Amino acid sequence: MEWQSALKDFEDFLKLEKGLSSNSIGAYLSDIRKLIQFLDMQKITRGPEQLDHDRLHQFLVWISELGLSARTQARILSAIRAFYRYLLLEDLIKKDPTALLEGPRVGRKLPEVLSVAEIDRILSMIDLSKPEGRRNKAMLEVLYSCGLRVSELVGLQISNIFRAEGFIRVIGKGDKERLVPVSDRALKEIDLYLPDRNSWNIQKESEDILFLNRRGRRMTRVMVFTIIKGLAQAAGIKKTVSPHTFRHSFATHLVEGGADLRAVQEMLGHESIITTEIYTHLDREYLREAIISFHPRSRKT
Questions:
Q1: Which residue in 58, 148, 253, 275 is deepest, having the highest Cβ count within 10 Å?
Q2: For residue 256, with 0-12 CB atoms within 10 Å meaning exposed, 13-18 middle and 19 or more buried, which class applies?
Q3: Residue 256 in contact with residue 282, Cβ under 8 Å?
Q4: Adjacent-strand bridge partners of 209
Q5: Which tens digits make up the pLDDT trace of 150-187?
Q6: Domains of the chain and CATH, by start
Q7: Using one digit for the tens of pLDDT, what is the confidence trace for 63-73?
Q8: Maximum separation of any 2 CA atoms in the chain, in Å
């Protein structure tokens, strides 16, 4: 079995069977090619079906010695495991050599979270006198109100806004659809933005896209990131703020307010509730502080 043909088949599998985005597929292939690079350096000509546990362990030692972070090492190992699970599924190998491989221990990195006051400060920095002001206000209200990924935000369609029901339809990872509640405040900002949007020279392929640049085309993720970063700096916020920070804040504020974790999982579009559980970190800290402050055994005498 040749590496290149196996990778091409794996790429088709990720695209057609798993429905992954081109960015995710590219990340998988890039990480697996690091293994191929290692084999080339070692002058090892074996195909993927001929590699054993020991050789793969040597590869893990190699990437560790390169100084890659534990998180990066774990991601590379995850990609290689997925590749070999695919080979096993297709009956191209009889035994998975990655089954007993151990990766580095990775602590869960807590996401940066904005307070409600900080979000309001960022929104207050938007200059509504500028042509793009109303768009930016509506865009950030939707981002925070619905907890969207930035790719979901820039792809949001007008036809997928259901005002009477108070929901929007979102196309998430793997083209999976979900319905997310949208606040009245966000809908109001959309209404204030639409007259400006409709006055622009909208390109045919973007007629149903809600958030457009002034050339009438769909906004890019980089453009949204740049807008948010500039507003955060203007608001004097020292935290690292990105579109994903609004999503983290949305989820954390819901959990802090007592929302059911399963409901938050549905709104975020997480396949596993384990991913959603990271947003309980502030809630747990609040409980800890409450115990220290009010429990009889914790009070200082």
A1: 148
A2: middle
A3: yes
A4: 157
A5: 989 999 999 999 998 888 888 877 777 888 888 899 99
A6: 3-89 (1.10.150.130), 116-287 (1.10.443.10)
A7: 887 777 777 88
A8: 73
Place of tokens 């993927």: 48
Phi, psi of 179 (to 5 degrees): -100, 130
159 touches 208 (CB < 8 A): yes
Contacts of 12 (CB under 8 A, 6+ apart): none
Two tokens at 208? Answer: 């149903």
Q: Round to the nearest angstrom and report the end-to-end CA distance of the chain.
A: 73
Indicate the burial class of 182 (C-beta count within 10 angstroms; 0-12, 13-18, 19 or more): buried
Q: Which residues on neighbouring strands pair with residue 179, listed in sequence order?
A: 169
Paired residues of 261 in beta bridges: none
Q: Which residues are catalytic?
A: 149, 173, 244, 247, 270, 279
The answer to whether 110 touches 277, Cβ cutoff 8 Å, is no
Closest CA to 218 of 172, 152, 173: 152
Q: Where are the alpha helices (DSSP H) in 2-92?
A: 3-12, 22-41, 53-65, 70-89
Beta bridge partners of 218: 212
Token pair recorded at residue 113: 């979270």
User: Which amino acid, 157?
Assistant: Q
Write 255-263 long-range contacts (CB < 8 A, 24+): 255/279, 255/280, 255/282, 255/283, 256/282, 256/283, 256/286
Tens digits of per-residue pLDDT, 80-129?
999 999 998 888 888 889 888 887 765 555 567 889 999 999 999 999 99
Distance CA 151, CA 148 (A): 8
